[in-house]
Amino acid sequence: MSAATEKVLAALSGRGIKIHRSGKGWSAQCPAHEDRNPSLSIATGDDGRCLINCHAGCATKAIVEALGLEMKDLMPERPKPASQAGKKAARQASESVSNDFATAYEAIAALECKLGLCSHRWVYADASGTPVGETIRWDPPGGRKQVRPISRRGERWVIEAIPEPRPLLHLPEIASLPDGAWVYVCEGEKSVDAARSIGVVATTSAGGAEAAGKSDWSPMKNKVVVILPDNDDAGERYAEEVARLARRAEAEEVRIVRLVDRWPDLPEHCDIADVLNLEGGDAEAVNEALNHLAVATPPEQFEDHPSAQRFMPFPVDALPEPVRSYVVEGAKSIGCDTSFLALPILAGLAGAIGNTRRIKLKRDWIEPAVVWVAIIGESGCGKSP
Q: What span, in angstroms and rounded, lies between the C-alpha atoms of 270 and 89?
């Protein structure tokens, strides 16, 4: 543990915040917002500086100020570079995007000479877990955010975007998921952090909303892809592009979930991180509401979907006796499909059950036995009986 990390942990303890060991680092409640779940990660970098990240989206500067510290307290104690060396590093970072560095830290340090200490870092790795690039973000006080990419070239690093096709964020986790797993796709890494903080599997593509096509979406094969676009036109365009790419990757389903349908007060340009703030940081409440919204959102329909015209017979074997025999024999007598009898019977049985039985799916989600059905068919196919 470095001196910088000790200083941060001491500041947390001094404010009565419990600290938990988490892997090679620590987790705690973030002091910059009303945090009911430990969303703050603390770790020590290879260079000795303290790395802190709030998965709910709080800026590093806000966290540091809430602890009564300064940004320089996160840095290790080391001699300041000579003024000429500092000017050279800044000039190299600004004049060239193809500089060669031995490590990712050296590439980031060159950028920090020009832009200051970064606010967030997100590592992109291949399926084996080997880092291939990073997205680094700066959130200067009173200024516009800045984002820069770095990427690996063999054993070296350059200040350039990851070569195409780029891996999705958290690819090793996604690649290990079983068929049918739900994966949420957000627009940007910060939104991914917020989504993951409420307990869902989330990812994004590198390079911003206009670069979705430069990533490899094949890991979405046989997955249920749930897209959470930002609440603006750019978000809609990103959602449509990702839906197309996921469809091409043979996703099992693609759903575009618009947060404003559940949170109508969500301002324009906002995302899942802002939803979490609207709910006061209540991750469990946002998780339940989001899952309910995702389940209620119908899958996207694609004209070239291979199963669009495929006939799926009604599963009469799932019906209990004597309903099953009635459906089978009745369909034979009328000369119609079994679904023409099974569906109305299900609606009638549900009405007979009424409110005597209910299913409690979640804490605040209770469903009665209500089934709405409709029989659709061409004239003369036996609907009327």
A: 36
